C-alpha cells in the first residue's frame, strides 16, 4: 500500500496556539492493512501476530499472516510473514484470525483456513522461532465441527493443561495434549446462556451477545473470555469464570462500536507491568470493514478485576523505554511513516522499500545521550539513489545530517553508506526523510549511529532500555 500520508491530526486550536504536528500512532502498522491482533510476550519482547487484509479487499481477502515485534510498544519491527494459507496443502484460502503460543522451545500457531474440500477448519503450524517460518504440524486440520470453525484462541493453564477455544456462532473448546498438536476427549460446545454471554435483543437465532473472535486467558486466578459481540456492527464484551471450562458469567462491554470496521477482534496482554488491549478498526486511508488496521490501547483493570471501558484512540500508548541508536536497528523499525513499504530482504528479515521523494519514517523516543557523531546505513538502489535526511522531532525538524546514496546496481545490492552528524543530543523522535529525483530512490536494510564519546555510545546513551 503506497499511502499519500499517514494520518495527521492537526486540531484548529493547535495550529493557532502551538505549531506542532502530531502524527497518530494508531493504527500500529501503516505499511499494509492488518486485522485480528494476537499479541504474545516471549523472552522480554512483545510479538504481535496479525491477519493481513489485501489491498482492495472487498470480502476478507486474506492470504497470509504477519508478525511485528516491539520492546517499547511504540516502535514496531516488521518481522514479515511467518505463515500463509498455502503452507497448509489442504487449504484453498482465507487466512483468518489466529493465535500463536510458545511451549517447550517451540511456537504453535493456531489458525482457521478454508479447506479445499469446503468449509473452515482449524489448523496448527509449528516453528522453532516466534517469527517463523512455520510449517503445517499435521498435514490435515486439527479440529473441525463443520460449523463456523474460525478464530482459535489458545491458553496453557498453571497445571500445564492447554485449552483451545474457537467458533462463530458457536463457542467450542478442546483440551490440547502436551504435544499441542492433538487433543483428548471430544470437542465441547459451550452453552451460550444469557447468564454467561448477555442478551441480544430481537434475534432468535443468536439470543446472546457472543459472536466470534474469543480471546481466552487467566489473570489473578480469574479466567477471562473476551470476544466480539452483537453482530454487525460488532463491539467487544467479556465473560469471566473461576474455571477454564466455565460456567461463564457475562461481565459487560469493554469497547463500544467505533471506527469504520463493522468487525472488531480483541487481544489482551500484560507486558512490562502494563496491560494492553489490541483491536482493529478501519482507520488507515482507504480503510473499511475489509481493509482493517490493528491498534492498541493501554488500560488498568479495576480493583475487582473487571475491565474499564476502553475507547479507540489515534494516539496509541506511551513508550515503555527509549531506543538506543548506537546499536544496529532494522530500518523496518517504525513508529509512524509516510509512503514507505516493507519487503523481504536478501540479507535476512525485511527492508524498507518503494521509497519516493518526501517519504519518511519516524522512530520514536531515540536517546542520543551526550551526542551522535555519525550515521551508517545499509542501503541499495537500482536507480541513481537519493538522500537520507536525518531530522529531529518532525519531517521538517532540525537537520542533523544527510546521507547521500548512489546507485548500487540493484534493489538488493547492499552497501554501507555513512555521513557525519551534529546537533543530536538527548531524547528525540528521529525522522529518516528521503529526498531525491523521480521514482523509487533507495532501499534501507538497517541503520546505526556512532556516538561522539570514546565508549561507542555506552556512556553517551542513557541506557534506559
Ligand atoms: O478476519 C476475518 C474474520 O473477521 C475473523 O476471523 C473474525 O474474527 C473477523 O475479524
Automatic annotation (TrEMBL):
InterPro entries: CBM6 (IPR005084), Cellulose-bd_IV (IPR006584), Galactose-bd-like_sf (IPR008979), Glyco_hydro_43 (IPR006710), Glyco_hydro_beta-prop_sf (IPR023296), Glycosyl_Hydrlase_43_Enz (IPR052176). One of its GO terms (biological process) is xylan catabolic process. The keyword Transport does not apply. Residues 1-24 form the signal peptide. The record marks 151 as: Important for catalytic activity, responsible for pKa modulation of the active site Glu and correct orientation of both the proton donor and substrate. Its EC number is 3.2.1.55. Residues 327-450 form the CBM6 domain. It comes from the Bacteria. Keywords: Carbohydrate metabolism, Glycosidase, Hydrolase, Polysaccharide degradation, Signal, Xylan degradation. The keyword Transmembrane helix does not apply. GO terms for molecular function: alpha-L-arabinofuranosidase activity; carbohydrate binding. SMART domains: CBD_IV. It is an enzyme of class 3 (hydrolase). Belongs to the glycosyl hydrolase 43 family. This is Arabinoxylan arabinofuranohydrolase XynD.
